[in-house]
Design brief:
The structure is a single chain. The protein is α+β, with helices and mostly antiparallel strands. It has 7 helices and 15 strands. Strands 1, 2, 3, 4, 5, 14 and 15 form a 7-stranded mixed sheet that branches. Helix 4 crosses helix 5 and helix 6 packs parallel to helix 7. The radius of gyration is 26 Å and the shape is globular.
Length: about 350
């Protein structure tokens, strides 16, 4: 009798095991396991040219110095109308949606004024009254979203002051441009670097050189250490842009860490000369993997109010290099470029789209 009961128990146990296997097959339950030792988790990075809010091309292209105060006033008024605080909320919402580990931002502008202005009379007192600091505005917008990001590196680019006409007289306006790297609080960083290129676009009429460069930092995400580099290459001269690209590649050529290089390169993929220089230097464009989009990132109208997106070229890129092994791009995407992204005013967040990439070393 004991033997029969024992046999029945064995049959019941076997039947239960069989059912458990059938059930797993039916619903395809995933097998959850720990990450293998030495394997790094995926990391997400983002680049975004946040846009001054107005094109400066009309100022840089003046043919007579008497045009400067009027053109500067036009640029300033368009900048004010572009509502960066409102646009920053949209950018912060995009960052919240994707939670990138690190973000490279271009055209993070500091606007200052001096009333009355002295530049038109040859004065050299710098304007110090802050009109808007994009860094402060965006960090406030991120905090309002409950996010904890901090600036871990930045490079100061052009710092220029010019007079403008207003209804109350002549006012000096000063623009200081920065490229900035943000990191989540969980990302540890070291070795922050700011480099300006020796090559610069020079405007003889204005006695001005448009300074540009890159910011970089060593970052650690999930045990993986890499060099994160953010840049903004020259927009108005291919000759200067190519020279800056040559400097950039040379500057990073001795780097022993894996590199993530991103930013607004102002060189279209795949035919741009500077783009091809980077490819030939063994920088891998993460957008080469097919993710169902064409990746165009530029450009909306100067006032950002065009109803249909004007993005017709891909000039904002995320490259990887020097990893010593194959890197898997899990996905890449553009953000801020669909009608639903526009503000209630109808304005786009920027004249550029942002670009995100999630990679697995």
């Amino acid at each position: 009798m004991l033997k029969i009961r024992h046999s029945v128990k064995i049959l019941i146990l076997l039947f239960a095991v069989l059912l458990s296997f059938l059930g797993c097959e039916k619903i395809k339950m995933p097998i959850v396991s720990e990450k293998p030792l030495g394997e790094s988790p995926p990391l997400t990075v983002m680049t975004y040219n946040v846009y001054l809010g107005s094109s400066v091309e009309s100022v840089l292209g003046v043919e007579n110095l008497l045009q400067v105060p009027t053109e500067v006033a036009n640029v300033y008024n368009t900048f004010i109308a572009s509502d960066f605080p409102g646009r920053a909320k949209g950018i912060a919402a995009s960052i919240k949606a994707h939670q990138p580990d690190l973000v490279g931002l271009q055209e993070m502008s500091l606007i200052r004024r001096q009333v009355p202005g002295d530049r038109i009379a040859g004065g050299l007192v710098p304007a110090e009254q802050v009109v808007m600091d994009f860094r402060t505005v965006l960090l406030d917008a991120l905090r309002a979203e409950g996010l904890d990001y901090r600036i871990v590196a930045e490079v100061e680019n052009i710092d220029v002051e010019m007079p403008m006409f207003t209804d109350t007289g002549i006012v000096d306006v000063r623009l200081t441009d920065y490229d900035v790297i943000l990191a989540r609080s969980s990302v540890s960083v070291s070795r922050p670097t700011a480099v300006n290129f020796s090559s610069a676009y020079e405007i003889e009429m204005l006695g001005l050189a448009v300074k540009r460069g890159y910011a970089a930092v060593d970052a650690t995400v999930g045990g993986q250490v890499f060099r994160f580099v953010n840049t903004h290459l020259e927009a108005f001269s291919e000759e200067v842009r190519v020279a800056q690209t040559r400097e950039l590649i040379a500057s990073l050529s001795d780097e022993t860490l894996p590199i993530i290089l991103l930013g607004d390169f102002n060189t279209p993929a795949p035919e741009g000369v500077a783009y091809q220089m980077l490819i030939n230097a063994e920088y891998f464009d993460t957008w080469q993997v097919e993710f169902g989009g064409i990746g165009n990132t530029c450009c909306q109208d100067a006032d950002l109010l065009n109803a249909v997106s004007g993005h017709v070229k891909r000039i904002d890129h995320i490259f990887v290099c020097n990893w010593g092994k194959e890197v898997t791009v899990l996905w890449a995407n553009t953000i801020g470029d669909t009608p639903s992204d526009r503000l209630a005013s109808g304005a786009w967040h920027s004249d550029h789209a942002g670009v995100l990439a999630r990679i697995k070393p």
